[in-house]
Structures are given as C-alpha cells and as structure tokens.
Amino acid sequence: SIPLRHGAHRIGNRTDSDMAHWRDYGLGQFIHWGLYAIPGGFWHGQPVNGAAEWIRSSKKVDPKEYDALISQFNPVKYDPVAWALMAKNMGTKYVTFTTKHHDGFCLWPSKYSDFTIMQSPWKKDIIKPFVEAYNKQGIDVYLYFSIMDWHNPDWRYELKTKSDSVAFDRFKEFTKNQLTELLTLYPTTKGLWFDGTWDKSWKASGAFSDELEQYLKKLRPGLVIGSRLRADEKGNRHLDANGRLMGDYHQVWERKIPETIAEVKGYDWECVMTVPENQWGYNARWSGHVKSSSEIIEMLANCVSKGGNFVLNFGPKGDGSFREEEIRLAKEIGNWMAVNGEAIYAAGQSDFRKEDWGYYTKSKTSGKTYMVVFNTPVTNMLKVNIPKNQKIASQKLLGSKQVLPLEHIEGRMHYIRLPGGVRQQPAVIELQLISDD
Ligand SMILES: C#C[C@@H]1N[C@@H](C)[C@@H](O)[C@H]1O
C-alpha cells in the first residue's frame, strides 16, 4: 500500500457506542434554511434553474445584491418547538441543520464573521433554541457546515499564487475558529456534516483537513464526522489513495441509494434525499417529480435493508414556516412509522435474499425479520426463501397482528399470502424465526 500520513487512520468501522447509536437511527431529517429561502428560487421575479440554495452562484447575482438579503431575514414564524414536534411526530431520530451554507451566512452569532444572524433584523441566535427544542424531543442534533464560503474574501477555489496560499491559510484559521465556536456554543452536538469540499484548494489541504478532524474529535470525543470532510495528501476524497474510507461513514449518497449491498462496501452510510428532484433550500416552484410518502418510505426501507440510514430534507420558507407538501409528508410518514417503526429503528440487513416484492430488514433488538412490501404480486403470494438452518415460527402483519397463511413450495421456498384488497401504504410482515436443526 501507498505510505500516507493523511489517509485513513482506522481500518474498518468505528466500534464505539456513539457510532452504534448513529447506526440505529434509521430515519433522519435534514433542514436547509438561510437567506436563499427569501428569493425561493426566483430572482427579479423570474424563476432561476438549479437548486434554490445555489441561486447566488447559478444566477451569478452581484454579491452585494445577494448579501443585502440579510436585511430581509426576519423569520417571524420561526418556531423551533413546533419544528421539533413535527420531526418527532414524523418518527425522526436525528436532524442535520445548516449553520452556514455556501453563501457564508451564519445562523449563529459568530464572532468571526460580519455576515451572521446578528446583523439581520432577527438579531437572535437561531441554532441554540433549535438544538434545545430538538434535544427536548429526544432527537439528536448534527450541524451542517459548508467549508466553501462565498462571502469570505479569503476563500479560494484553487491555490495558484503565494498570495492565494496566504489568504487560504487565514481561511483555514477562520474555519477552525467557527467550528470551535459551534462545538462550544452547542455542546450536545453529536456530529458535523461537512459540505463544499470538492474544490482544488481543499483537495490541496489534506494535511489541514486531517488535523482539523483530529482537533474537533479531541474537542468533542465521540463526534461523528462523515467522509466528505477529508482529503488525503494526494487530493483523494472519501477514499484515500489506498481505497480506505476517511471518516466515520460514507457520505457520498446524496440523492442516490446504493443499487446493491456490494456498493455499500461494508461501510457505515446514510442517504440524504430531497422531496423534489434537487431542491434543498425553499423553492417557491417545485417543478418536476415530487415524491409521495410511499416513495419516501420505500427509500427508507431500501436504505435500512442495506444497513444505512435515510435522511429526508425539509426547506422552510424565509418566514420560518413549512410548505404544505412537507407538513403533509411528515404526517403521512409519521403515521406509517408509528405502526411499523420496529422494522426501521435499530434495524439493518437481514439474512434473506432480496425478493421483488420489497425489502427485508432485521431488528438488532428483537432479532425479528421484517418484510416491507411495496410491490404486491397479482397473486398476493409473497415468495420467501428461508435461510439454511432456520424456519419460520410465526408470520404476522404488523399493526393488526393478523397471522398470515404460510405455504411450503419446495426446498427452502415458501409463500406468505397477503390479505387481499388495495393497500394505501406499504405493508410490513413480522417474521419470528427459530433454528431448524
Ligand atoms: C451540491 C450541493 C449541496 N449538497 C447538498 C447537501 C445541499 O446542501 C446542496 O446545496
């Protein structure tokens, strides 16, 4: 293997209790909120293509004109207690919240920037009441932080000259100071979700990214940081030059889910997903396909069946309220989770071979296996290939506890018959297995 000083420092996944707790979340919420929620995908009355939180860049807005949005940020409907209750009712176990996106606007009173919530009409810390409200609901808080900062004059896309490096060294110090602030002001933060680390300047800062991660973990032992922060000294990201993961979990699954368990490569991982095709911040015009609660529940079950977590994004409006579609989705998902959560929480990959009708998950607590059924065959007969040395002791519909008929076909093949009728939501069957010695 290639000798590396700033590659992965651990082979294999973390084995500590903080990471085991992270692994058991199942369902998370992402919240993207900032100045970009004010224009909401429109500029001078015209819709702008691309993600709403990128409007400054995609519309090439004059920085002064974009930054002037700060004078309009006065979210009179911001109610973190109500936000946390909506998340709780959805069945959320952890939340990732944007403290600073690429535009550099800080939702906390940072001493190191003039572009913060304190210079807006709101004049109050947004993050502190958010963390308190979510923690009060038993939801762990992770803070999103964009390394790339379009507002800071010391940011560089590439280090071409000596003066670039001098400026970027100041920028690295600024970054370390802001992260220290966040962990100090919000000590219950369980992890940091880094973004904006794809440019050449950061790829050339592998040593710094390594030292920064070690510094942050010393400041907050147990902190969970994904693979999007680091670069090795050769500019590799996520996997170092020896193909080893740099970070506590694989953070590449943005708006995509691994097709096969092989693609997971045994890493811890989460998928972060938008409701429309690709909008993280509030966009007044959701064009294209908007996912239904059943589609989202299928993505959730798919991720858990492959050992990952699923994180659904919400983009509050500039005034701090949520759009109707998101409020409805949170409720519908919550109704399903209330009945079927045991197939999702503290669950992961099962011993069963995947079938067309949906996904198997296995609970780490009850040891039971669950069949999360999306594609009901016309026969209502679900194929089940029982692993060797096991047999099914019971097969019940979650919720109703109705025992379902089990029919042996041949060898390890069986059928479980679903009750007839049209289902509005995915059905979950709980399998109790016993050894078949
Ligand atoms: C690209 C990009 C960013 N990564 C997602 C998590 C959003 O923050 C989006 O703006």
Keywords summarizing the entry:
single chain; 437 residues; alpha/beta; 7-stranded parallel sheet
Structural class: alpha/beta
Question: How is the main sheet built?
Answer: 7 strands, parallel
Please tally the β strands and state the result.
17
Strand content: 15-25%
In angstroms, what is the radius of gyration? 23 Å
Give the end-to-end Cα distance, rounded to a whole number of Å.
44 Å
The helix content, as a percent range, equals: 10-25%
Gross morphology is globular
The helix count comes to 10
Bound ligands, each once: (2S,3S,4R,5S)-2-ethynyl-5-methylpyrrolidine-3,4-diol
Spatial order of the strands forming the largest sheet:
7-6-5-4-1-9-8
Q: Spans with pLDDT under 50 lasting ≥5 residues?
A: none
SSE series: HEEEHHHEHEHEHHEEHEHEEEEEEEE
Overall pLDDT score: 97
Description:
The protein is built from ten helices and 17 strands. By secondary structure, it is α/β, with parallel strands linked by helices. It has a seven-stranded parallel sheet with strand order 7-6-5-4-1-9-8, sandwiched between helices. Strands 10-11-12-17-14 form a five-stranded antiparallel sheet. Strands 13-16-15 form a three-stranded antiparallel sheet, with no helix packed on it. Helices cover 25% and strands 19% of the residues. A hairpin with a 2-residue loop joins strand 2 and strand 3. It is globular, with a radius of gyration of 23 Å. Helix 4 packs parallel to helix 5 (127-136), helix 4 packs across helix 10 and helix 6 packs parallel to helix 8. The protein has helices at 17-23, 55-58, 63-67, 80-90, 127-136, 162-185, 200-203, 206-219, 293-305, 324-340, and strands spanning 27-31, 42-43, 46-47, 94-100, 140-146, 191-195, 224-225, 270-273, 309-314, 347-348, 358-363, 369-373, 381-385, 390-397, 406-410, 413-417, 427-435. (2S,3S,4R,5S)-2-ethynyl-5-methylpyrrolidine-3,4-diol binds at residues 32, 51, 53-54, 195, 254, 272, 280.
